[in-house]
Amino acid sequence: MFDVYITKAAKYLPNEAVSNDEMETYLGLINDTASKARRIILRNNKIQSRYYAVDKNGKSTHTNAELAKNAIEQLFDENFTNQDLEVLSCGTSSPDIIAPSHAAMVHGLLKNKSVELNSSMGICCSGMNALKYGFLSIKAGNSKNAICTGSEKVSTWLSAQKYNNEIINLKNLEEQPIIAFKKDFLRWMLSDGAGAFLLQNKPGGEISLKIEWMEAYSYAFELEACMYAGGDKLENGDIKPWSDFTPEQWLNESVFAVKQDVKLLDEFILPKGVESMSDAMAKHNITAKDVDYFLPHVSSYFFVEGLKKGLDEKGIILTEEKWFMNLLRVGNVGSASIYIAVEELMNSGKLKKGDKILLSVPESGRFSFAYAYLTVC
Fold first, then answer.
1. What is the distance between the alpha carbons of residues 254 and 248, in angstroms, rounded to a whole number?
2. Is 219 found in the same domain as 196?
């Protein structure tokens, strides 16, 4: 078994930062009416700026694959060129197309050479799953290096025009032409961007991060879907897939819209997160004293105090100075968020050799959680 190091990290955030007051300029107004939920949701998540891969007319400036490619290219230099790459592992929850895979589309843009590909689907944990594939490949001696990414392009999924047919249909049915909260909620939570790591079997550069271990947990065996797209939830909790709807229903019911069951989110995201993190730390015999920096991916500051309280009750006392977050400035970039946070910390000048970093990534899709423990070297 070989040691695995993150030797370089990069991010790509498209265009200029978008303030809270500018959001509807980019995403548009549903039914020509400002969202009543927007201010409430933004007040709770405390995000102040984010990035969109669209212009003010809603026209795309980048694809998801291009965002990932732009982050990846920053990892190449005279010491590691695109011809040296062996494994490309890409995670996303918002691929540009259903098939071919997201990793294949990114590789097509790199135009380097034949490499091994892996695409990880899911939601926020897809980025961590992509990282674990690269980690295990190097650890097992299958490869000497890998580039792993998390990237999202959700702005076009959230544009007002995607909901117009549903509004027209509601008017025709003489119902209130208001998009359900489960759809409107995520329009003010998500943003675009990409992050990338270069993994190698030897440390390199001024700072490298040795991946000590990675763990992942799923509670889908006992909990129904909470965040979903490309279908709709039935009364019994099952998801009816898009392929079982008519094309008219795709439009009239915004079947492809990203939805969030907020009640389920509130009930389970923190308890299951605390439970899985406690299990991961116990499995590897570490405590809060063995953590110098805690990087939790959270979708909203609304959950931060609850997470702290839950961890405290488990005896995991992570003091304020150990928490490292950039949600306020870059927004919730889904699978890319943890990459972007690590890149910022890695290049901050704060790290010293021997520091221990714990990464925590929850996914509300059907409640999955992923963790990684890193040593600065």
1. 10
2. no
Query: What residues contact residue 252 under an 8 Å CB cut-off, 6+ apart?
Result: 165, 166, 168, 169
User: 326 is in which domain, residue-wise?
Assistant: 213-376
Condensed to tens digits (0 to 9), the pLDDT of residues 12-51 reads 999 999 999 999 999 999 888 888 889 999 999 999 999 9
Q: How far apart are CA 28 and CA 167, in angstroms?
A: 14
| Total number of residues shown for the chain | 377
Q: Are residues 140 and 239 in the same domain?
A: no
C-alpha–C-alpha distance, residues 4 and 35, integer Å: 47
Same domain for 169 and 217, yes or no, is: no
**Residue whose structure tokens are 């070297």:** 377
Q: Which two tokens stand for residue 58?
A: 């809603």
Indicate the range of 89-93, 139-143, 249-253, 271-275 predicted with least confidence.
Answer: 249-253
Triad 87, 90, 92: Cα angle to 5°:
175
In this structure, the answer to whether residues 139 and 267 fall within a common structural domain is no
Q: Residue 162 sits in a domain of what CATH number?
A: 3.40.47.10
Side chain identity at residue 90, one-letter code = C
Q: What pairs with residue 267 in β-bridges?
A: none
Quick one: pLDDT at residue 184?
Answer: 82
Give the Cα separation of 267 and 269 in Å (integer). Answer: 6
